[in-house]
Every structure is written in C-alpha cells, then in structure tokens.
Amino acid sequence: MTLLAHDRYCDEIVRQTDELRATLKGADLDAQVPTCPDWTLRDLAVHVGGAHRWAGEIVRTRATGQVPDEQVPEFTPDGDDPAVLDVWLADGAAKTADVLRDAGRDRQVWSWSWDRSAGFWARRMAHETVVHRADAVLAVRAGYAVAPELAADTMDEWLEIVAFAQSQGDPEAAELRGAGRSLHFHATDVPGAEWLIEFGEDGFTWRRAHEKATVAVRAPLTDLMLLINRRLDVDSGRAEVLGGRELLDFWLERATFR
C-alpha cells in the first residue's frame, strides 16, 4: 500500500471542504442526515469544522496528549447564520491544511492511533471530510464523485482503523474472526482496486488482492467506498454480492470504531 503525498492530503482537506460548502449552500440546515440520523446538516458541518480545528491544534501545539475541545480556538461557529458557518468552515480547513503543510508528514504529535504523526492527521482529516461530504450529498440528494486514488485510500484507511480497533479490544471489531471465511471487494471501474479480507481464529487481516473469497462484492470504486463506510445500503442496487450475504452483513455490522 502506498500513501498519497502529504501535500495531497492537505489539499484535499480544503478541496473536499469547498465541495461540502457548495452542497450546503441554500440547503435546509435543519434537515436530518439519513446516514447520521442524530445529526442535522448544521450538526454535520459543525462536526467537520470542529474536527479540522481540533486536529490542527494538536499539530500546531505539537501536543503530546489529547487536546480538550475547550482548548481549541473557534471550535464552534459564532451563531447559526449560514453565511457565518460557511466562512467558519472555509477558514478552519485552510488554517488546518497550512499547519499540516508546515509541520510535514513526519512531525511527531499525539494521536489516538497507531501512527503518531502529523501525516496521520492530514490523511485522517482528508478522509473524514470525504465521507462526511457524502453524508451531506445524500441528505440533499445530489451527485457525488471522488477521485479514484482518494476513494481507494479512503478504503485502505478504514480497514486500518477497523484492524486497529480490533487490536485495542473494541467489542464489535473483536467479533470479526472465524477461520475459513473471506470477503473480496472488487471495483468494477478501476483496474487493481481490489481488497481481500480474511478471517482467522484471532481476528482478520486484509490486503490488496484478487483472489476467490467466500463472498465477493462488485461495484464502482466510489460505491464500494461508500458501502464499506456504511454510507450505501447493500440493497441499493448499486453493488453485486456473490455468495452468502450473511458474511457481508456480519462485517458491516461490526466494522466500526468508537
């Protein structure tokens, strides 16, 4: 697996935020987000902007421990005015991207993950924005597209996160075991964009590979990315499932991280 360039992740934080802002423009910000049913569109936007600022503050201060939300400057927008929210989103994304660029990929900082670097936060915030932009698009029923290399890396990162969750004893991820079973995710529109998940007695492993599996899932790459992030329903008609549907459902129900 090859990561994208650090500057690319920084650029995507801004680019994906700009596309999120365009999706929100003129929308009913009190509308419910179907894929995040506890949130309105406004809640979604505040979550994304707050995450950007939080990650940026961790890197800016070279934090060695978790930074409380109340210590993050402008963690929430000032009021409910959509215009203020729009400026707040744009400003936070730009500032965070600048901090991450200045720090460089290898700068050591705190993170909750296996990777304690500024590079982790650049990648994490890029993909956080990619997936939550999908939430907003689904809420307003607009079109959605992601560059193939970014969609594939979003899938890679999510599999890494679920594997990390399992290693940390997350109760749902801990159930992703059982020897002799496997899942194959196959993008139908991008050569080589394929993932094999193999279940063992002690957990699961994954790799990029084209091999026969217990269950195969075929779809365009962006739809695969949305499906594995639980933003696309298996019954949407946009993915073909070959083999026992139960194993796919088993994976999707437990491949989480809280």
From TrEMBL:
Listed InterPro entries: DinB/YfiT-like, Maleyloyr_isom, MDMPI_C-term_domain, MDMPI_metal-binding, SCP2_sterol-bd_dom_sf
Record domain Mycothiol-dependent maleylpyruvate isomerase metal-binding: where: 11-136
Keywords: Isomerase
The keyword Cytoplasm belongs to this UniProt entry's keyword annotation: no
Domain of life: Bacteria
Ranges where the MDMPI C-terminal domain occurs: 149-249
Pfam families per UniProt: MDMPI_C, MDMPI_N
SUPFAM superfamilies in the record: DinB/YfiT-like putative metalloenzymes, SCP-like
A single GO molecular function term of this UniProt record: isomerase activity
Name of the protein: Maleylpyruvate isomerase family mycothiol-dependent enzyme
Organism name: Streptomyces yanii
